[in-house]
Amino acid sequence: MTEPSATFLLFGATGDLARRMIFPSLYNLLSDGLLPDDFLIIASGRSDMSDEDFRGDVCAALQQFLPADRYEAEVAERFRTMIQYQPVEAGNAAQFAALAERVDGRLERGLSVYLSTPPSLFAPTAQGLADAGLITPRTRIAMEKPIGKDLASSRQVNDGIGALFAEDQIFRVDHYLGKETVQNLLALRFGNVMFEPLWNATAIDHVQITVGETVGLEGRVSYYDGVGALRDMVQNHMLQILSIIAMEPPARMDPTSVRDEKVKALRSLRPMTDETVKTHSVRGQYTPGAVQGQIVTGYADELGKPSDTETFVALKAYVDNWRWQGVPFYLRTGKRMPARQSEIVIQFKPVRHSIFGRDGQNAGGGTGLEPNTLVIRLQPEEYIRLQIMSKRPGLEQQVRLEEVTLDVSLTAAFAGQRRRIAYERLILDLLAGNATLFVRRDEVEAQWTWIDSIIDGWKEANVKPAAYSSGNWGPSSAIALIERDGASWHE
Length: 491
Prior knowledge:
CATH superfamily of the largest domain: Dihydrodipicolinate Reductase, domain 2
Number of domains: 2
Number of helices: 16
Low-confidence stretches: 359-367
CATH class of the largest domain: Alpha Beta
Number of strands: 17
Shape: globular
Helix content: 25-40%
Distance between the termini: 44 Å
Strand content: 15-25%
CATH topology of the largest domain: Dihydrodipicolinate Reductase, domain 2
Mean pLDDT: 91
């Protein structure tokens, strides 16, 4: 692996993501001594401002978004001196030339470019970099989602970048892959002998993936309407989680091996049709209600007009391969949910025969044998819980069973370790050129192929979003989706 890039070029530097996540992440990496010597951050936006004015804005953002115990004036001052600001608009050759002057003499030490801009600007920005002589074998480019809005447009975006960069220079960002708990899925499966032999259709009844948000549009009106929950959350975050759960063991922990197995799982997703979308999918849109004690308006009220965009989606998916044949994967995500939570539930099958009483009921009158459940919480807390059956203490002649929880709180287990922003891991890997936690082009296309089958099915079957009151877990049909199979959502 080459030396880490010594220059970080950020487009969209005046945006919300940069202020909330990217600059605090870079500050934390500096504070921990993880940035290369003589590191330079060149921030770019459409606004015209001086280096000093922009540095002031960044320092204000650090004080706003960093925990109080992380902000140190001395580190902030060092960080401030690393930042330069260069206004650049796509298509403005003079501004790109001025940008190249900022980088002059540093290209051989590596340049990492981060595009925190609308996808429509990806290719024009890359072309501007090429025309200014800023693309070399040591230039890497990272792109924030969305990569298109369907398979055809994602190919256009990827073709535009791919014409100027080799695939191993392109880093497609999904910030969920930077979360410690998502990475821990790999450790859980492949670092513990008790899980992997059971990680298949023989032992697992079904899998649930839930990503719930309490927020509504939150200023994203122009982006979200017409996109919806399926494209915004399922296509990227949730399918990336699914691919890690469903993938076969990679030969080794390197970018090619890991991503090869993920794309195989994604390509094994059973496409939906205009018939199966009726029974295997639910669309919803929130109406007025109360979330965590606060009265909130409905989606159409926030938008200011009626809309067919879904703010909730629940899906029943199948991965058609040897490992997962017949195991349903239930996915649900939505806005204005009762709680902000992201979690994975692995529901194991019941014990085949209970020795503790007929029909699974124990002779002592207890609740009987409950199937084991593995709960992996990604946010807001981070933990892994395994629910198992245990003998209830006592001197009764007949064994009484009770469900107990083996609880591994990652926060408590690693109390001495700081909880990191997901972008810290991703930026560090971008600088180092490690693409394991980034999404490869064939992954994106496999994801869109499956999503497009659902969208096409909805259009053919004329599936409209069902109303659900804010503060609920979606429409009642989402409950029916899973309960028809004798299961229920974990809440």
